[in-house]
Amino acid sequence: MATKTFITNYSGQSLVGDERDIVVSRTYYLAVIDWCKEHKISVYDSGTRGTAASFGVNLWRVEDDAQRVLFMLRWAK
Predict the structure, then answer these.
(1) Among candidates 64, 73, 59, which has minimal Cα distance to 24?
(2) What is the Cα–Cα distance from 74 to 77, expressed in whole angstroms?
(3) E-assigned strands of the chain?
(4) Which distant-in-sequence residues (6+ apart) come within 8 Å of 11 by Cβ?
(5) Global pTM?
(6) What per-residue confidence (pLDDT) applies to 48?
(7) Which among 55, 57, 65 has a CA at the least distance from the CA of 19?
(8) How far apart are alpha carbons 9 and 64 in whole angstroms?
(9) Is 37 helix (H, G, I), strand (E, B) or coil?
(10) Does position 1 have pLDDT exceeding 90, yes or no?
């Protein structure tokens, strides 16, 4: 899959991930996990935890296309 730049800060650092990743504020970390369990959505942190944390976000990956659409409708901004 292709990569995507999600955020670039004032010093030029960028948060880059897979184009299928979805950015959600770290504020909602536990809410995302609970919501996914409730709706039986298979999701995982995309592996950019350290970098994403410095931007105050998490990159979530939902590999199933139908589940990704539902996740985006709920969490993407």
Answers:
(1) 59
(2) 9
(3) 3-8, 14-18, 22-25, 44-45, 57-61
(4) none
(5) 0.82
(6) 63
(7) 65
(8) 30
(9) helix
(10) no
Alpha-carbon 59 to chain mean position: 3
Positive or negative, the CA dihedral 43, 45, 47, 51 is: positive
| pLDDT average, residue stretch 61-74 | 94
Token pair 């899959």 is at which residue?
1
pLDDT computed for residue 72 by the predictor: 95
Two tokens, residue 58: 């998490």
The pair of three-digit structure tokens given for residue 68, joined into one six-digit string? 């990704």
Chain segment 21-67, per-residue pLDDT in tens: 999 998 999 999 999 999 999 998 766 666 677 888 988 999 999 99
Tokens of 27: 């504020």
